[in-house]
Amino acid sequence: MTATAAPPAASTTEGPGPARRRRWAVPALLGVGLTGLLALGVLVSASNGAFAIPLGDILASIAHKLGLGGAPVEGTGESVLWNIRFPRVVLGVVVGASLACAGALMQGMFGNPLAEPGVIGVSSGAAVGAVCAIAFGLTFAGNWTIPLCAFAAGVVTVSIVYFLSRSGGRTEVVTLVLTGVAVNGLAGALIGVFIFYADNDEITAITFWQMGSLSQATWPKILAVLPLAAIGLALAPTYGRRLDLLALGERPARHLGVDVERLRLHLIVIVALLTGAAVAVSGVIGFIGLVVPHLIRMAAGPGHRALLPFSTIGGAAVIVWADLAARTVAAPAEIPLGILTALVGSPFFFWLLRRTRRRQGGWA
């Protein structure tokens, strides 16, 4: 009696095609979703305010400007749209994209989801420059004086942090962070000194600037910082692969051909460009560089070749929607944008802190 062979079991494994399609489906959907959220935010933000403008009129005005037909908005609506609303929206896109991309770079460089651009002192340094210009009434560059001083001070502060943390031709992450903490403390003391000697009007201006806002947006200000932000945003994705290798650890990254010290220097320069440009025109807007990259990482994974561009789009969308809320929730008053992002970002940071601690089983 011969045994009959059992029929072969149906294969339950899928070929590489479906797996590959699923692997690319999530990033593709995320990119489309973020882009759609940003585009919708731009239109809704341009439409809403003290002077409401229908979405159809906005689209017709844009088509008219592009020479595609359409018609300008009737009455003062055209001026409100192109001289007030769109400058503010575009500045929000630039600021949000810059801060979120800088945050993603910082988290990749430090290998820590709790890192953000303020760690290396660029935000506090820029605040020192702006507060100094306000307190001493500097006007050597006209309306550009405060943004110029803020950007220059931010870059100088980052340079000081970097060179003070170098030892033996290398820069360790722990030393860089501790140096940034010390410089941030010094920057806070200098801001206090400037406020002490300022008069009431100057104190009011300093306080408003430190709260962060897009209310002073103009096309000239956008054109002043756009080249710096564009350079940083264009260069950031080119470091995606090296950041992925750095995530394996410094020693493995070096064995795989990554010049860790040069990479860190390049990233610090890019972060300084992005954060300095954003802070110079908007004041201090916190938590965007912390919250947005982490949310994108949770959705798209840790790969920086997707994380960096998606964080850029996500940061722009978050700022556009947050600014819309800031100027409409308490209308006719306006909530400073930095306060609103802090109200949302602080609880998220606390949750992230507890989540990270729980996953690691404590900090010890």
Automatic annotation (TrEMBL):
Residues 1-20 are annotated as: Disordered. Residues 1-18 have a biased composition (Low complexity). Keywords: Cell membrane, Membrane, Transmembrane, Transmembrane helix, Transport. One of its GO terms (molecular function) is transmembrane transporter activity. The chain crosses the membrane at residues 24-46, 86-106, 118-138, 144-164, 176-198, 218-236, 267-292, 335-353. One of its GO terms (biological process) is siderophore-iron import into cell. It is a multi-pass membrane protein. InterPro entries: ABC_BtuC-like (IPR037294), ABC_transptr_permease_BtuC (IPR000522). GO terms for cellular component: plasma membrane. It is found in: Cell membrane. Belongs to the binding-protein-dependent transport system permease family. FecCD subfamily. This is Iron complex transport system permease protein. It comes from Glycomyces sambucus. The lineage of its organism: Bacteria, Bacillati, Actinomycetota, Actinomycetes, Glycomycetales.
